[in-house]
Design a protein that fits this description.
Elements (H helix, E strand, L loop, with lengths): L3 E2 L10 H13 L9 H20 L7 E4 L2 H16 L5 E5 L4 H12 L3 E5 L9 H7 L4 E7 L11 H9 L6 E5 L11 H4 L3 E5 L10 E5 L25 H16 L1 H22 L3 E3 L11 E6 L4 H10 L2 E2 L1 E2 L12 H5 L4 H5 L1 E5 L6 H21 L5
Parallel strand pairs: 1-11, 3-4, 3-5, 5-6, 6-7
Antiparallel strand pairs: 2-8, 7-8, 9-10, 10-13, 12-13
Helix pairs in contact: 1-8, 2-8, 9-13, 10-13
Protein backbone atom coordinates (compact mmCIF):
# COMPACT_ATOMS: atom_id res chain seq x y z
CA UNK A 1 0.00 0.00 0.00
CA UNK A 2 1.27 3.48 -0.85
CA UNK A 3 1.91 5.62 2.22
CA UNK A 4 -0.83 8.09 3.15
CA UNK A 5 0.70 11.45 3.99
CA UNK A 6 -1.03 13.95 6.29
CA UNK A 7 2.11 15.84 7.36
CA UNK A 8 1.98 18.75 4.94
CA UNK A 9 2.68 21.21 7.76
CA UNK A 10 6.21 19.78 7.90
CA UNK A 11 6.82 19.54 4.17
CA UNK A 12 4.84 18.52 1.11
CA UNK A 13 5.45 16.22 -1.81
CA UNK A 14 6.96 18.16 -4.73
CA UNK A 15 4.55 18.30 -7.65
CA UNK A 16 5.69 16.22 -10.67
CA UNK A 17 5.90 19.40 -12.76
CA UNK A 18 8.14 20.93 -10.09
CA UNK A 19 10.50 17.95 -10.14
CA UNK A 20 10.62 18.11 -13.93
CA UNK A 21 11.51 21.79 -14.19
CA UNK A 22 13.95 21.67 -11.27
CA UNK A 23 15.75 18.75 -12.91
CA UNK A 24 15.83 20.58 -16.23
CA UNK A 25 17.54 23.57 -14.64
CA UNK A 26 20.04 21.40 -12.78
CA UNK A 27 20.95 19.46 -15.92
CA UNK A 28 20.75 22.00 -18.72
CA UNK A 29 20.03 25.50 -17.36
CA UNK A 30 22.52 25.76 -14.51
CA UNK A 31 24.04 29.04 -15.70
CA UNK A 32 24.66 31.99 -13.42
CA UNK A 33 22.23 34.90 -13.95
CA UNK A 34 24.32 37.75 -15.32
CA UNK A 35 24.17 40.18 -18.20
CA UNK A 36 26.31 40.55 -21.32
CA UNK A 37 26.32 36.87 -22.27
CA UNK A 38 23.57 34.72 -23.75
CA UNK A 39 23.28 32.08 -21.04
CA UNK A 40 23.44 34.53 -18.13
CA UNK A 41 20.93 36.93 -19.67
CA UNK A 42 18.48 34.09 -20.27
CA UNK A 43 18.68 32.88 -16.67
CA UNK A 44 18.44 36.44 -15.38
CA UNK A 45 15.19 36.82 -17.31
CA UNK A 46 13.94 33.54 -15.83
CA UNK A 47 14.72 34.84 -12.34
CA UNK A 48 12.72 38.03 -12.97
CA UNK A 49 9.80 35.98 -14.28
CA UNK A 50 9.85 33.84 -11.14
CA UNK A 51 9.70 37.00 -9.02
CA UNK A 52 6.73 38.24 -11.01
CA UNK A 53 4.84 34.96 -10.63
CA UNK A 54 5.21 35.06 -6.87
CA UNK A 55 4.52 38.80 -6.66
CA UNK A 56 1.31 38.44 -8.67
CA UNK A 57 0.06 35.75 -6.30
CA UNK A 58 -0.03 38.25 -3.42
CA UNK A 59 -0.80 41.44 -5.44
CA UNK A 60 2.73 42.78 -4.97
CA UNK A 61 5.33 44.19 -7.32
CA UNK A 62 8.18 41.95 -8.46
CA UNK A 63 10.71 44.48 -7.13
CA UNK A 64 9.33 43.76 -3.63
CA UNK A 65 10.23 40.04 -3.75
CA UNK A 66 13.51 38.64 -2.39
CA UNK A 67 14.35 34.97 -2.74
CA UNK A 68 15.79 33.32 0.37
CA UNK A 69 16.97 29.89 1.47
CA UNK A 70 13.61 29.26 3.16
CA UNK A 71 10.91 30.67 5.43
CA UNK A 72 13.18 30.87 8.47
CA UNK A 73 15.75 32.88 6.52
CA UNK A 74 12.99 35.21 5.29
CA UNK A 75 11.74 35.71 8.86
CA UNK A 76 15.22 36.50 10.16
CA UNK A 77 16.03 38.92 7.34
CA UNK A 78 12.71 40.72 7.87
CA UNK A 79 12.78 40.96 11.67
CA UNK A 80 16.47 41.58 12.24
CA UNK A 81 16.69 43.81 9.20
CA UNK A 82 13.76 46.01 10.22
CA UNK A 83 14.72 46.35 13.86
CA UNK A 84 18.38 47.13 13.22
CA UNK A 85 17.50 49.73 10.58
CA UNK A 86 14.72 51.42 12.55
CA UNK A 87 15.76 51.21 16.22
CA UNK A 88 16.30 54.98 16.24
CA UNK A 89 12.49 55.34 15.93
CA UNK A 90 11.70 53.07 18.88
CA UNK A 91 12.56 49.82 20.62
CA UNK A 92 9.17 48.27 21.40
CA UNK A 93 7.97 45.10 19.65
CA UNK A 94 4.63 43.27 19.88
CA UNK A 95 3.97 39.61 19.08
CA UNK A 96 1.93 36.86 20.75
CA UNK A 97 2.57 33.85 22.96
CA UNK A 98 1.33 31.48 20.23
CA UNK A 99 3.51 32.68 17.36
CA UNK A 100 5.81 30.50 15.29
CA UNK A 101 9.23 29.80 16.87
CA UNK A 102 11.01 32.00 14.30
CA UNK A 103 9.11 34.99 15.66
CA UNK A 104 9.43 34.07 19.32
CA UNK A 105 13.15 33.33 19.20
CA UNK A 106 13.81 36.60 17.39
CA UNK A 107 11.71 38.44 19.98
CA UNK A 108 13.75 36.83 22.76
CA UNK A 109 16.99 37.76 21.00
CA UNK A 110 16.03 41.43 20.76
CA UNK A 111 14.68 41.42 24.32
CA UNK A 112 18.15 40.42 25.48
CA UNK A 113 19.56 43.18 23.26
CA UNK A 114 17.63 45.94 25.03
CA UNK A 115 14.29 46.00 23.23
CA UNK A 116 10.96 45.76 25.07
CA UNK A 117 8.62 43.00 23.90
CA UNK A 118 4.90 42.71 24.63
CA UNK A 119 3.54 39.18 24.27
CA UNK A 120 -0.20 39.17 23.53
CA UNK A 121 -2.41 36.45 24.96
CA UNK A 122 -4.79 34.31 22.90
CA UNK A 123 -8.28 32.96 23.53
CA UNK A 124 -9.19 29.27 23.60
CA UNK A 125 -9.48 29.16 19.80
CA UNK A 126 -6.10 30.76 19.17
CA UNK A 127 -7.12 34.33 18.29
CA UNK A 128 -4.88 37.00 19.73
CA UNK A 129 -6.34 39.54 22.17
CA UNK A 130 -7.08 42.64 20.09
CA UNK A 131 -8.03 44.72 23.12
CA UNK A 132 -4.65 43.92 24.66
CA UNK A 133 -3.05 44.92 21.35
CA UNK A 134 -4.78 48.32 21.49
CA UNK A 135 -3.63 48.86 25.06
CA UNK A 136 -0.07 47.77 24.24
CA UNK A 137 0.63 50.44 21.63
CA UNK A 138 3.27 52.94 22.75
CA UNK A 139 5.06 55.90 21.22
CA UNK A 140 8.14 53.71 20.75
CA UNK A 141 6.31 50.72 19.18
CA UNK A 142 7.84 50.08 15.76
CA UNK A 143 7.05 46.45 14.84
CA UNK A 144 4.15 44.02 15.19
CA UNK A 145 4.77 40.37 14.26
CA UNK A 146 2.24 37.58 13.80
CA UNK A 147 1.69 34.14 12.29
CA UNK A 148 -1.26 34.55 9.94
CA UNK A 149 -2.15 30.84 9.93
CA UNK A 150 -1.20 29.24 13.23
CA UNK A 151 1.21 26.36 12.75
CA UNK A 152 -0.37 24.20 15.48
CA UNK A 153 -4.15 24.73 15.34
CA UNK A 154 -4.62 26.61 12.05
CA UNK A 155 -6.23 29.78 13.45
CA UNK A 156 -6.30 32.61 10.89
CA UNK A 157 -5.56 35.92 12.58
CA UNK A 158 -7.77 38.94 11.64
CA UNK A 159 -5.05 40.86 9.81
CA UNK A 160 -7.33 43.68 8.58
CA UNK A 161 -8.51 44.46 12.10
CA UNK A 162 -4.95 44.29 13.37
CA UNK A 163 -3.79 46.74 10.68
CA UNK A 164 -6.55 49.20 11.67
CA UNK A 165 -5.39 49.06 15.29
CA UNK A 166 -1.76 49.61 14.31
CA UNK A 167 -2.75 52.54 12.11
CA UNK A 168 -4.42 54.22 15.08
CA UNK A 169 -0.94 55.03 16.41
CA UNK A 170 0.63 58.34 15.43
CA UNK A 171 3.85 56.69 14.26
CA UNK A 172 4.37 54.04 11.62
CA UNK A 173 4.18 50.51 13.05
CA UNK A 174 5.37 47.92 10.55
CA UNK A 175 3.61 44.55 10.38
CA UNK A 176 5.58 41.41 9.64
CA UNK A 177 3.60 38.27 8.85
CA UNK A 178 4.84 34.68 8.78
CA UNK A 179 2.61 33.20 6.06
CA UNK A 180 4.42 29.90 5.48
CA UNK A 181 1.40 27.84 6.63
CA UNK A 182 -1.20 30.15 5.06
CA UNK A 183 0.23 30.98 1.65
CA UNK A 184 -1.71 29.36 -1.23
CA UNK A 185 -4.22 28.02 1.30
CA UNK A 186 -6.07 31.26 2.00
CA UNK A 187 -6.27 34.44 -0.14
CA UNK A 188 -3.54 36.95 0.77
CA UNK A 189 -3.49 40.41 -0.79
CA UNK A 190 -0.69 42.37 0.87
CA UNK A 191 -2.20 45.71 -0.11
CA UNK A 192 -5.71 44.98 1.11
CA UNK A 193 -4.33 43.59 4.38
CA UNK A 194 -1.68 46.28 4.87
CA UNK A 195 1.19 43.82 5.28
CA UNK A 196 4.67 45.36 5.19
CA UNK A 197 6.86 42.24 5.39
CA UNK A 198 5.88 38.63 4.75
CA UNK A 199 7.70 35.30 4.58
CA UNK A 200 6.64 32.31 2.47
CA UNK A 201 8.17 28.90 1.82
CA UNK A 202 8.19 26.69 -1.28
CA UNK A 203 8.24 23.24 0.31
CA UNK A 204 4.90 23.80 2.08
CA UNK A 205 3.09 24.12 -1.28
CA UNK A 206 4.59 21.22 -3.28
CA UNK A 207 7.74 23.11 -4.24
CA UNK A 208 11.41 22.27 -3.52
CA UNK A 209 12.91 22.33 -0.06
CA UNK A 210 15.46 24.99 0.80
CA UNK A 211 13.91 27.99 -0.95
CA UNK A 212 11.52 30.71 0.16
CA UNK A 213 10.77 34.35 -0.38
CA UNK A 214 10.42 37.59 1.53
CA UNK A 215 7.96 40.29 0.55
CA UNK A 216 9.27 43.76 1.44
CA UNK A 217 6.85 46.63 0.82
CA UNK A 218 8.34 49.54 -1.11
CA UNK A 219 9.54 52.15 1.37
CA UNK A 220 10.20 49.66 4.18
CA UNK A 221 13.90 49.90 5.03
CA UNK A 222 15.80 46.79 6.13
CA UNK A 223 19.31 46.67 7.50
CA UNK A 224 21.88 44.19 6.25
CA UNK A 225 21.89 41.01 8.34
CA UNK A 226 23.84 38.78 5.96
CA UNK A 227 27.11 40.10 4.55
CA UNK A 228 28.93 38.89 1.49
CA UNK A 229 29.13 39.38 -2.25
CA UNK A 230 26.06 41.19 -3.55
CA UNK A 231 25.53 39.18 -6.72
CA UNK A 232 21.77 39.09 -7.20
CA UNK A 233 20.11 40.41 -4.05
CA UNK A 234 21.26 42.88 -1.44
CA UNK A 235 19.45 41.02 1.37
CA UNK A 236 20.38 37.41 0.50
CA UNK A 237 24.00 37.81 -0.58
CA UNK A 238 26.02 35.22 -2.48
CA UNK A 239 24.73 32.76 -5.04
CA UNK A 240 21.20 31.47 -5.45
CA UNK A 241 19.67 28.09 -6.14
CA UNK A 242 18.18 28.93 -9.53
CA UNK A 243 16.82 25.41 -10.05
CA UNK A 244 14.89 25.56 -6.79
CA UNK A 245 13.62 29.05 -7.56
CA UNK A 246 12.31 27.78 -10.90
CA UNK A 247 10.61 24.92 -9.05
CA UNK A 248 9.18 27.38 -6.53
CA UNK A 249 7.66 29.49 -9.32
CA UNK A 250 6.17 26.39 -10.94
CA UNK A 251 4.63 25.33 -7.62
CA UNK A 252 3.06 28.79 -7.28
CA UNK A 253 1.69 28.61 -10.81
CA UNK A 254 0.11 25.23 -10.11
CA UNK A 255 -1.40 26.38 -6.82
CA UNK A 256 -2.77 29.68 -8.12
CA UNK A 257 -3.89 28.74 -11.64
CA UNK A 258 -6.84 26.98 -9.99
CA UNK A 259 -6.60 28.74 -6.64
CA UNK A 260 -10.28 28.66 -5.67
CA UNK A 261 -10.68 25.00 -6.67
CA UNK A 262 -7.53 23.96 -4.81
CA UNK A 263 -8.52 25.80 -1.63
CA UNK A 264 -12.08 24.47 -1.81
CA UNK A 265 -10.88 20.90 -2.31
CA UNK A 266 -8.59 21.02 0.72
CA UNK A 267 -11.39 22.55 2.80
CA UNK A 268 -13.81 19.76 1.76
CA UNK A 269 -11.23 17.10 2.58
CA UNK A 270 -10.50 18.50 6.04
CA UNK A 271 -14.20 18.99 6.84
CA UNK A 272 -14.83 15.39 5.79
CA UNK A 273 -11.96 14.18 7.99
CA UNK A 274 -13.17 16.14 11.02
CA UNK A 275 -16.80 15.03 10.64
CA UNK A 276 -15.77 11.41 10.21
CA UNK A 277 -13.50 11.41 13.27
CA UNK A 278 -16.10 13.13 15.48
CA UNK A 279 -18.89 10.80 14.35
CA UNK A 280 -16.92 7.56 14.83
CA UNK A 281 -14.46 8.18 17.69
CA UNK A 282 -15.81 9.35 21.07
CA UNK A 283 -14.08 11.67 23.57
CA UNK A 284 -12.32 13.94 21.10
CA UNK A 285 -11.71 17.69 21.18
CA UNK A 286 -11.08 19.95 18.20
CA UNK A 287 -8.30 22.43 18.94
CA UNK A 288 -8.76 25.81 17.27
CA UNK A 289 -11.82 27.29 15.54
CA UNK A 290 -14.25 25.59 13.19
CA UNK A 291 -15.05 26.57 9.62
CA UNK A 292 -13.51 29.35 7.59
CA UNK A 293 -11.69 30.90 10.55
CA UNK A 294 -9.04 28.18 10.39
CA UNK A 295 -6.58 27.33 7.62
CA UNK A 296 -8.27 24.72 5.43
CA UNK A 297 -5.51 22.14 5.59
CA UNK A 298 -5.12 21.90 9.38
CA UNK A 299 -7.14 19.65 11.69
CA UNK A 300 -5.82 19.33 15.27
CA UNK A 301 -7.70 16.97 17.59
CA UNK A 302 -7.06 15.73 21.13
CA UNK A 303 -7.97 12.11 21.88
CA UNK A 304 -8.75 11.75 25.57
CA UNK A 305 -6.89 9.30 27.82
CA UNK A 306 -4.01 8.41 25.45
CA UNK A 307 -0.63 9.75 24.30
CA UNK A 308 -0.29 11.31 20.87
CA UNK A 309 3.13 9.73 20.36
CA UNK A 310 1.58 6.27 20.68
CA UNK A 311 -1.12 7.13 18.15
CA UNK A 312 1.48 8.50 15.75
CA UNK A 313 3.68 5.40 15.93
CA UNK A 314 0.81 2.94 15.54
CA UNK A 315 -0.64 4.88 12.61
CA UNK A 316 2.83 4.89 11.05
CA UNK A 317 2.82 1.09 11.22
CA UNK A 318 -0.49 1.23 9.34
CA UNK A 319 1.11 3.35 6.60
CA UNK A 320 -0.27 6.75 7.65
CA UNK A 321 1.95 9.76 8.43
CA UNK A 322 0.53 12.24 10.95
CA UNK A 323 2.16 14.35 13.65
CA UNK A 324 1.60 15.10 17.29
CA UNK A 325 1.79 18.56 18.83
CA UNK A 326 3.77 21.14 16.85
CA UNK A 327 6.31 19.99 14.32
CA UNK A 328 8.44 22.99 15.20
CA UNK A 329 8.26 22.72 18.99
CA UNK A 330 10.62 20.87 21.27
CA UNK A 331 11.12 17.22 20.44
CA UNK A 332 11.07 16.47 24.15
CA UNK A 333 8.11 15.60 26.37
CA UNK A 334 7.09 19.16 27.22
CA UNK A 335 3.46 20.06 26.45
CA UNK A 336 3.03 22.17 23.35
CA UNK A 337 3.20 25.89 24.18
CA UNK A 338 0.40 26.84 21.78
CA UNK A 339 -1.94 24.25 23.26
CA UNK A 340 -1.20 25.42 26.80
CA UNK A 341 -1.78 29.05 25.80
CA UNK A 342 -5.22 28.01 24.50
CA UNK A 343 -6.07 26.71 27.96
CA UNK A 344 -5.57 23.02 27.28
CA UNK A 345 -4.14 20.89 30.08
CA UNK A 346 -1.05 18.66 29.85
CA UNK A 347 -3.09 15.59 28.95
CA UNK A 348 -4.97 17.37 26.16
CA UNK A 349 -1.74 18.74 24.78
CA UNK A 350 0.02 15.38 24.81
CA UNK A 351 -2.98 13.62 23.26
CA UNK A 352 -3.31 16.04 20.34
CA UNK A 353 -2.83 14.90 16.77
CA UNK A 354 -2.37 17.17 13.78
CA UNK A 355 -3.58 16.17 10.33
CA UNK A 356 -2.43 18.56 7.59
CA UNK A 357 -3.81 17.86 4.13
CA UNK A 358 -2.95 18.77 0.56
CA UNK A 359 -4.74 18.79 -2.78
CA UNK A 360 -3.17 15.40 -3.50
CA UNK A 361 -5.03 13.68 -0.66
CA UNK A 362 -8.27 11.80 -1.34
CA UNK A 363 -11.50 10.91 0.42
CA UNK A 364 -10.52 7.23 0.13
CA UNK A 365 -7.32 7.93 2.07
CA UNK A 366 -9.37 9.61 4.78
CA UNK A 367 -11.77 6.64 4.99
CA UNK A 368 -8.86 4.25 5.48
CA UNK A 369 -7.13 6.57 7.96
CA UNK A 370 -10.17 7.02 10.19
CA UNK A 371 -10.90 3.30 10.11
CA UNK A 372 -7.37 2.51 11.34
CA UNK A 373 -7.40 5.47 13.73
CA UNK A 374 -10.56 4.18 15.41
CA UNK A 375 -8.90 0.79 15.89
CA UNK A 376 -5.73 2.36 17.28
CA UNK A 377 -7.57 4.65 19.68
CA UNK A 378 -9.73 1.77 20.95
CA UNK A 379 -6.66 -0.41 21.49
CA UNK A 380 -4.68 2.30 23.30
CA UNK A 381 -7.60 3.26 25.51
CA UNK A 382 -8.08 -0.35 26.51
CA UNK A 383 -4.54 -0.23 27.93
CA UNK A 384 -4.75 3.27 29.45
CA UNK A 385 -5.03 3.55 33.24
CA UNK A 386 -6.93 6.81 32.67
CA UNK A 387 -9.86 4.85 31.20
CA UNK A 388 -10.12 2.38 34.07
Amino acid sequence: MQRIYFNNCLTSKPAPEVVEITTEYMKNRYYFPENFNATGTEISSDLELAKKIIADSIAANSTEIHFTSGGTAANNIAIKGYLTANSNKGTHIICSVIDYPDILTNAAFFEKSGFDVTYLNADNEGFIDLEQLKNSLREDTILFMTTIGNHTVGTIQPIKEIREILDSAEQKIAMHVDACEAYARIPINVNELGIDLMSISAHKIHGPQGVGALYQRKGIVLGQVQHGVNRMDNLQTGGMNIASIAGFAKAVELAFDEKEDNMAKIRKLSDYLLNKIESIIPDTLLNGPRGNRRAPHNINISFDYIEGEAIMMMMDINGVSISTGSACASQGLKPNYVMMALGRNHEQSHSSMKFTLSRYNTFQEIDYTVEKLAEVVKELRSRSPLCN
